[in-house]
């Protein structure tokens, strides 16, 4: 019989919880409603439609201007004017606004001004590091998203800065009272995570101005919503969980700095970079060893 | 005779020809020399319409020279030539395709050398034919993809790209390096 991960972990948590009087710092509850509120605050009323011309630069063909809605339409909508595959394969976008300097953003971030946009995919040569960072960041966020859905308790997440060379990404889970996951629980979480990823949830992204983030207490310059889970982060993320290929959460351990913090390590490769089971087993084993060795 | 004179004055097509003509059976058409041409005409018409088609390998090989010659006639002679228009009329019974040929496909190859088509071989497919007395009959097919070059679809063969910094390569090279180190250590320990 399949045991839902939520009840499994909730049961274990109630049986092992110890009372701890820890003062929590006031931080906003990152809910889906909060995300909508911030979007309204940053981008204004979605019902008021204002048209802008965005030029989509294509390497193979000429640039194509498309008419879209200011603060509502995203680069993904613009790319869809060219072709669905072109849009689906996009990971990040380089935006060159008519006023101000160029910047890199997520594909699902609303476009605020008339600009030129260039698609960046996993096949990029110029921006490989940027794409890798965005992918690793997105994997951490997805892990946090399905862990929050699975645990359904009062848990908070931190995102240690990992890079591809580390061989793994990690998420700091606060609120587990130092209880690490058993291998059986990790298996259950992995199954739940894979189902979550298969649902092809988009990474809805908002770029938060500093004034708004200070006022609302958001720690980061981007707000990302995956399904109904919202997180603050620093930097762009990939387009959708559809772009995540092989994915595994392999271990959890007590954090080095804080005993109540549990670090969950994982590894993943993009869907468009397929590999054999043997290569994947080497990658997962290496990531597990490196994660275990890291302090 | 006329066809011989025209063909002689045209450059050679850039694809392989000259193997034994095959029967190319199809349901609804009695097998004969004429039937073979009918089958090839269907394939050529469909290829001009769709620009990339998936066929049995032998049919794709057989139809390719005819399609190549038809495009070549368009490129070399143009729509006003009598023999060209006769050939177009016969090979493309759907008349909008003649317009497509002269206005879309031929201009694409004005300054290009033959071949104008590409043929790729796909892995063989095993398909169920029928079930007779609870016995399933399967058949193995060699599949070919015939396409007119410059079509709007993504390429059949992906370009080989230098991806040494991609996530997979970075993770895999690190994993292999550590795997070799571990193996070396094990060997040294066992030697001692």
TrEMBL record, chain A:
InterPro entries, per this entry? Answer: Thr/Ala-tRNA-synth_IIc_edit
The record's listing under Gene3D superfamilies reads: Threonyl-trna Synthetase, Chain A, domain 2
Name listed for the protein in its UniProt record: Uncharacterized protein
Sample GO molecular function, one term? nucleotide binding
Q: Which SUPFAM superfamilies match?
A: ThrRS/AlaRS common domain
From TrEMBL, chain B:
Q: Which UniProt keywords apply?
A: Ribonucleoprotein, Ribosomal protein
Q: Which family does it belong to?
A: Belongs to the bacterial ribosomal protein bL17 family.
Q: What is this protein called?
A: Large ribosomal subunit protein bL17m
Q: Which organism is it from?
A: Caenorhabditis nigoni
Q: Name one GO cellular component term.
A: mitochondrial large ribosomal subunit
Q: Which residues form the signal peptide?
A: none
Q: Give the gene name.
A: Cni-mrpl-17
**From what superkingdom does this record's organism come?**
Eukaryota
A single GO molecular function term of this UniProt record: structural constituent of ribosome
BP GO annotations: translation
Reply yes or no: does the keyword Amino-acid biosynthesis apply.
no
